[in-house]
């Protein structure tokens, strides 16, 4: 089984107008999504945002309330789970403890009575660099090795789409980072379409070509990892994908290149092209690692925002950087990540400091902290009960 044969099985995924409602709440509001064939796509979000429900819909483990699911252009909305060209790798791995590694990988092929099941299983194990452990049992393997066996078992079935449901969550930090790189390498080699569901921001940004940040049943923003990090569009994305310093105020001046916001009596300038709103009350921000800490007031500059004086509330050493929390009075608190290029902290707890950052590093959001959510809770189950009744009636009539 060659890499070329794997690559030819990749297919695009389309979700068209997907809605999923459960008794008492809406898990997915209105989801339209296209994932190109052969890409590594990450669906990122907190618990309860709808990402796992989306994965279960694609796998055929749940039925959508409304909408269509297409894989490689074929509508599989009403297709049973085992009939879809999809495989899933779960966090638990779900390996058979009484079988050897090679028997685990070949199990699905033998059930489907596919020829040369053991040969294909060995090829999949070579792909994940574990063929030398083919005769061991799962309990004799490390967590990372078990994860790779689960991946080989999923790939050997040549699915058009591979679903990864928090597959690295059970691993320790060092091994998880190693497996992130290995997963990306394997995906590039086999050419399959990977849909990775995770709440781990670093994991999504390390592996995925495209990341979709999901919140309350809908996608807030989608794009390349660097694009989402450098230019978030909403408060949720700015705070969920890394950390952000956000300031809210009124736009007091706008030009073709920059807009000025009065935030608590302090004027902050951001590039017009990097702002979603250009009038009224807006939220602007900057990432903590873009901010510079000063122990003396810096000279004013046309290309930098300078704010202060403030007082250091907390100093936290984290190895590669020191994190400072600075109280700026009416402007609120600011987080600063200072790289540890010297010895010891730049400023001590309680010190008077100023902060600055280049104007080009700022961004403006499309909403402000505290704005109402996307949709209210669905407390009524009447319509859902009616839908289920109609569905049962239809099934009885067909029978």
How would you briefly describe this protein structure?
The protein is built from ten helices and 20 strands. With 399 residues, the protein is α+β, with helices and mostly antiparallel strands.
Radius of gyration from the CA trace? 25 Å
Going by CATH, the homologous superfamily of the largest domain would be P-loop containing nucleotide triphosphate hydrolases
Proportion in β-strands: 25-35%
According to DSSP, the number of beta strands is 20
The level 1 CATH classification of the largest domain is: Alpha Beta
Question: Helix fraction?
Answer: 25-40%
Largest sheet: 6 strands, mixed
Name of the CATH architecture of the largest domain: 3-Layer(aba) Sandwich
- The arrangement of helices and strands along the chain is HEEEHEEEHHHEHEHEEHHEEEEEEEEEEH
Q: Termini separation (Å)?
A: 43 Å
Number of helix segments?
10
Shape summary:
elongated
């Amino acid at each position: 089984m060659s890499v070329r044969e794997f690559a030819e099985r990749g297919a695009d995924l389309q979700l068209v107008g997907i809605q999923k409602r459960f008794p008492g709440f809406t898990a997915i509001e209105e989801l339209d999504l296209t994932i190109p064939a052969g890409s590594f796509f990450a669906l990122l979000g907190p618990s309860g945002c709808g990402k796992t429900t989306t994965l279960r819909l694609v796998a055929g483990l749940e039925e959508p309330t409304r909408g269509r699911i297409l894989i490689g252009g074929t509508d599989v909305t009403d297709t049973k789970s085992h009939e879809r060209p999809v495989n899933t790798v779960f966090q638990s791995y779900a390996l058979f403890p009484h079988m050897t590694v090679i028997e685990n990988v070949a199990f699905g092929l033998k059930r489907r009575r596919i020829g040369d099941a053991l040969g294909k299983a060995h090829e999949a194990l070579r792909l994940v660099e574990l063929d030398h452990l083919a005769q061991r049992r799962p309990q004799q393997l490390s967590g990372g090795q078990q994860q790779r066996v689960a991946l080989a078992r999923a790939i050997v079935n040549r699915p058009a789409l591979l679903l990864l449901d928090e597959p690295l969550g059970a691993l320790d930090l060092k091994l998880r980072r190693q497996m992130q790189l290995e997963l990306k390498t394997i995906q590039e080699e086999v050419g399959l379409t990977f849909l990775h569901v995770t709440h781990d921001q670093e994991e999504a940004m390390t592996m995925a070509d495209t990341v979709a940040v999901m919140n309350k049943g809908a996608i807030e923003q989608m794009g390349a990892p660097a694009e989402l990090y450098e230019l978030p569009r909403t408060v949720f994305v700015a705070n969920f994908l890394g950390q952000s310093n956000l300031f809210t105020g009124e736009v007091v001046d706008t030009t073709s290149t920059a807009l000025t916001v009065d935030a608590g009596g302090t004027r902050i300038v951001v590039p017009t092209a990097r702002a979603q709103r250009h009038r009224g009350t807006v939220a602007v921000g900057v990432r903590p690692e873009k901010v510079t800490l000063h122990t003396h007031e810096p000279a004013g500059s046309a290309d930098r925002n300078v704010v202060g004086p403030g007082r250091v509330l907390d100093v936290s050493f984290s190895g590669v950087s020191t994190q400072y929390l600075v109280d700026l009075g009416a402007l609120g608190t600011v987080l600063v990540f200072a790289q540890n290029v010297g010895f010891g902290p730049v400023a001590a707890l309680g010190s008077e400091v100023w902060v600055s950052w280049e104007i080009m590093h700022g961004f403006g959001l499309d909403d402000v902290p505290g704005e109402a959510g996307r949709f209210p809770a669905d407390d009524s189950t009447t319509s859902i009960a009616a839908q289920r009744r109609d569905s049962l009636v239809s099934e009885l009539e067909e029978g």
